[in-house]
Structures are given as structure tokens and as C-alpha cells.
Design brief:
The chain has 2 domains: 14-153, 3-Layer(aba) Sandwich (Rossmann fold), CATH 3.40.50.10740; 160-300, Glucose Oxidase, domain 1 (3-Layer(bba) Sandwich). It has 8 helices and 13 strands. The chain has helices at residues 30-38, 60-72, 98-102, 114-122, 142-153, 182-188, 211-223, 252-260; strands spanning 14-18, 42-45, 76-81, 106-109, 127-129, 160-163, 171-181, 201-207, 232-239, 267-269, 282-284, 287-293, 296-300. Helix 7 packs parallel to helix 8 (252-260). The longest helix has 13 residues, at 60-72. The protein is globular, with a radius of gyration of 18 Å.
Amino acid sequence: MPILFPPPLQAGQRVAIVAPARKVPPADLAGALETLAGWGLEVVLGASIGAESHQFAGDDDLRRRDFQQQLDDPSIRAIFCARGGYGTARIVDGLDFERFAQSPKWVAGFSDVTVLNCHLLRRGFASLHSPVPVLFNQPGGEEALESLRRALFGVPDAGLGAPAHPLNRPGTATGALVGGNLSLLHTLTGTGSQAGFAGRILFLEDLDEYLYHIDRMLLHLHRSGQLAGLAGLVVGHFSQMHDNAVPFGHTALEIINNYARLYDFPVGYGFAVGHEADNRALVVGRNVTLTVDASGSRLRY
């Protein structure tokens, strides 16, 4: 299936910020509003911003209707998911992409937004795995934010590199980018949002998980055959991992290596992708070349 890419943004266009998952106070978006205005964009805040239903940004119906409104509005040229958390999977099956398909627009975010990244890719649309507005101005995130601006406005980008890592497996592979948060990729298995990995470059990241959970999820991807056809694997941040009183015995990266070494595709560790300040934007669905050698790893567009 060919992948459709939204046109680059232009100064003066309208973009929306919505909250498909956890609640977001409007004050938390002040920095993002300033940044986006500085990029020459007019920002619309969706009805889910400031809404509250326990942990969620309003109930499922409100969040779905808000997202649908931005999908259907032809004047909105990009949709930023304000933050992650949990909740996007609860609304995704109720979204209608018919009008969106007539005029695709960028959908951007990460973490819980992996649901949308994969849901769109399965339907043939590219999207952005990228910093979310509540994190736009955190210290150390300047290069990540600039990578998002370049992706949105179609500024040429050489790609992303990572230093040499002892677990790297050398090699070169080309394929479309797919992936995101490991917990969400595991959750999407067998659903209408599962994106195929075969022939593609898979990237992974996660946060706040027990080490045995990481093993269990990767075991499931292995046993279900999802790792077998990979062209290559890119490993990002695995942050704030937890262990039990009786240690699991392996770090998160060692666990990934335990499964990756069962295959022969190239693997690069240490990419700036995930739940750290330096979370570079990746275009999900874009063809890239992964090169892993003694000097490190590189993703080139």
C-alpha cells in the first residue's frame, strides 16, 4: 500500500491542539502556544483542552467528537496531541477518516499517540512520532523541537544518529518507519490499529515499566511472528524502568537484545526517541535507511 504524506505546513495556516487521552489544563500549553505562534501558525484549542473526567480530558465521547472535528475541518492543517497518558485507544474505533483521506493533515505526538501513528499507517497515511505540546519547552529538548518544526514544514533533514553501543548488530537495511511505545504496540496486536512490521524499520521506546513487563511484551511480539520479517530495529529511550525485590536479571536493553539476536536484521541502540527531553521527531511511514557499523548507527531519509 502506498503511503500518503500530508503537504508541508506554511506560515499563516491553522493547527489544532487536542487531548485524546489524559486531561490537560490550558495553562500547561502556554509555552507551546508561544512556540507555534513563533512558527507563524494560528492555533485552535479543541474542546478537550481543559475538560476533565477523572484522568481523562473529558469523557470518551467528548474526546472523540473533538478529534473528529479537527479531522474534518479542512482549514486545520495539523493536529497536535497535547500529551499522552492513556485513553486514545478508547476513542480510535469511533473516528471516521473519510474527509481526512480527501485532504490528509499531520497528526503529531508520541507515547499513547502511538495508537494514532499505527492506526493511520495501517490505512496508508504518514504521521509524526514527536514531542507533545506540554513538553515543548523543557530544558534539553531544543533539538527535538527543531526536528519537529523541520518535519512539519518540509525542511530537508539528514536523519538521526546514535553513538556506538555494545549491543549494536551491524548491517544496513531500508524500509518504512513503524513503531513507537512498546506497551501500545503490544496492546494494538490483533486490533484494527495494528500496523504491519514486515519489511519495515521498527523503532521502540517505553517508560515506567517493570523489566519483566518488557520481557513479556517482547516475547509476545516474538511468538506472534511480528519480529520475524523486520528489516531493522531502532531502540530509543527505555526510561524509569522498575525491578522486583527478586531482580529480573537483565536491563531493558539486554532484554531487547535477547529477542533481537534470534534474528539477523541490523539493530541500533541509543537513539534519541522516547520519554526523555531529547525526543527527535520521526515520520512514521517514511522510507529510511538504517546503517549500523563500528562508528554507531544512522537513520537517513
